[in-house]
Amino acid sequence: MTKEDPRISAGLMGLTYATGAVGVGIGLSTVHAEKPTLRVACLLAVGVAGFLSWIRHSVFHRSDAIRMGWDLGKRNSFQIEVGLANLAWALLAFLAVILDWGLRAEAASMLVFGFYLASVVILVVLGPKDENAKRAWAPIIGMTIFATLLITVGFQGMAAG
């Protein structure tokens, strides 16, 4: 398996969604606890998921481009830039928890990631479409659900904080 094999980015994508789902599930239960918290949820759903997305988009950018059918045959700096954005909110989430910035900072990191993903969904659905390409709805639906849950938990965290 080479660094460009699309199975690498597909596996990282699967790990991202699995980690995100566990994190959001934990957040939905802990944000309404007697002492509300999003620490573990923030670490998993934003920190780890964002870090895995950075690795996928930036380190394995060719693998990810091939997986999505966007391979240009060379380095795509924009895709690496998207990875760096993912790293930015991953670092925000890690620092919010490690430095104990509190529930509102943890919730804000979930909102940032959720708003970003929702924006991507809107772009993909409403943006220009290659007439020869089939739209893959499963990833769009998965991203929509993840974005919606991140935003929901983020707002619940803000209300509880």
Could you describe the 3D structure shown?
- The protein is mainly alpha-helical and 161 residues long.
- Helix content is 77%, strand content 0%.
- It is built from six helices and no strands.
- It has helices spanning 6-30, 39-59, 61-68, 77-98, 103-126, 137-160.
- Helix 1 crosses helix 3 (61-68).
- The chain crosses the membrane at residues 12-32, 38-59, 80-101, 107-126, 138-159.
- InterPro entries: DUF6790.
| Percent helix | over 70%
As an assembly, this protein is: single chain
**Main pleated sheet:** none
- Shape, per Cα inertia axes: globular
What class, by secondary structure content?
mainly alpha
Number of domains: 1
The sequence of SSEs as H and E is: HHHHHH
Per DSSP, the total helix count is 6
In short:
The chain is mostly helical and 161 residues long. The chain has helices at residues 6-30, 39-59, 61-68, 77-98, 103-126, 137-160.
Comma- or semicolon-separated keywords:
6 helices, mainly alpha, single chain, 161 residues
